[in-house]
Design brief:
A two-stranded antiparallel ribbon has the order 1-2. A hairpin with a 2-residue loop joins strand 1 and strand 2. The model has no long low-confidence stretch (mean pLDDT about 85). It contains six helices and two strands; from the N terminus they run H-H-E-E-H-H-H-H. With about 150 residues, the chain is mainly α.
């Protein structure tokens, strides 16, 4: 039986602090941090090359002019001025924002209680099966889902 001040895995005569490594836990050197997170470097490089660079190009193109279907590298906000002056574009923008906010809220309202119920109240032997049943529809192809919606609607 453990005595007060000792860890369950440590003998009763040894205090809990004796089982911990020495040194200040809050102080880490740069090399230890670099060694710990170096495995993320390839993913960060790929993320930068295949996501951030194209996104930056799209942002740059949005500020450049187009003359006779050729991009002129002249910085201007005319594209945004035109976009916000056409009512159809603005309506479409707000409809898109509204649908995305509603879908996010609905997903959170459904997913968090389900996850809480699954983690707290479902017996361990059924948790994996129910989780697989939730994830399984995402494994189907997009085309198959479209055709299934056609029959439903």
């Amino acid at each position: 039986m453990a005595t007060p001040g000792s860890s369950p895995g440590v003998g009763a005569t040894q205090s809990a602090d004796a089982a911990l490594p020495l040194g200040r836990p809050g102080r880490r050197t740069w090399s230890s941090w670099l060694g710990e997170y170096a495995g993320f470097a390839p993913a960060l490089v790929l993320f930068g090359v295949f996501f951030l660079v194209p996104l930056g190009l799209i942002v740059c193109y949005s500020f450049w002019k187009t003359v006779d279907y050729n991009v002129v590298h002249h910085w201007t906000v005319d594209n945004y001025r035109y976009f916000f002056s056409v009512p159809t574009y603005v309506r479409t923008l707000w409809a898109t924002v509204w649908v995305s906010v509603a879908a996010t809220a609905l997903t959170l309202v459904i997913a968090f209680p389900f996850a809480y119920w699954l983690a707290r109240y479902v017996p361990k032997r059924y948790q994996k099966v129910l989780l697989i049943l939730v994830i399984l529809p995402f494994w189907t192809s997009y085309l198959l889902r479209v055709y299934s919606w056609l029959t439903i609607l």
